[in-house]
Amino acid sequence: METKKKGRNQVSMLAEKIFFKSINREDSIAKKSLFKEERGFTLIEMVIVISVIAILMSMAVPTLSGVKNRANLTVVKSDLHNIMSSLELYYMKNYKYPDSSDTSNTINKIKEDFADLNIKEDGTAYSYETDSGTDAQKYIVSYQNDNSKYYYISTDDAAVVGPVDTKPSFDS
């Protein structure tokens, strides 16, 4: 009987060894396959991320598209205000505004009279008119943007006006 017990013990020990080896082998295979799958992203994950980015971009692009136009308009308004300040200082010294008898009628013509005139746009972008050739008492400085709208400043308004559809003049 002891030999039967011994034989059974050996068989059960052998079965245990085989069982534990198979568990360890399965465990190591599971670990290997687990690490193997974590090396990259699945196609579904990539599609989801790209979709989220596309949705965010579709919200951001329309918001940012008008920023450059608004910035340019702000520069023009600032330039018109600077021109107005310089013209008023000129008037306080000379009791008249610079004449606009020259046919060019641009700020570049009178820009040389102002040492401290600081404008961002080119002076040819602004039109300058006075009520008379000499001894001018009124002025209009206007700017036409890309959409054919006018922004202007004058002695009557003393502030930037616009956008308007027609070019400002002393007649209107």
Give an account of the 3D structure.
Helices cover 53% and strands 12% of the residues. The protein is rod-shaped and about 125 Å long. It is an alpha+beta fold and 172 residues long.
Portion of residues in beta strands equals 5-15%
Mean pLDDT: 76
Low-confidence stretches: none
Terminal CA distance reads: 128 Å
Q: Reading side by side through the largest sheet, how are the strands ordered?
A: 1-2-3-4
Number of domains: 2
Largest sheet: 4 strands, antiparallel
Q: What overall form do the CA principal axes indicate?
A: rod-shaped
Number of helices: 4
Radius of gyration: 41 Å
The ordered H/E elements are HHHHEEEE
Structural class call reads alpha+beta
| Helical content class | 40-55%
Write the layout of secondary structure elements.
Blueprint: H1 2-37, H2 43-65, H3 67-94, H4 107-111, E1 126-130, E2 139-144, E3 150-154, E4 161-164
Antiparallel strand pairs: 1-2, 2-3, 3-4
Give a brief outline of the structure:
With 172 residues, the chain is of the alpha+beta class.
Quickly list its features.
single chain, alpha+beta, 4 strands, four-stranded antiparallel beta sheet, 172 residues, 2 domains
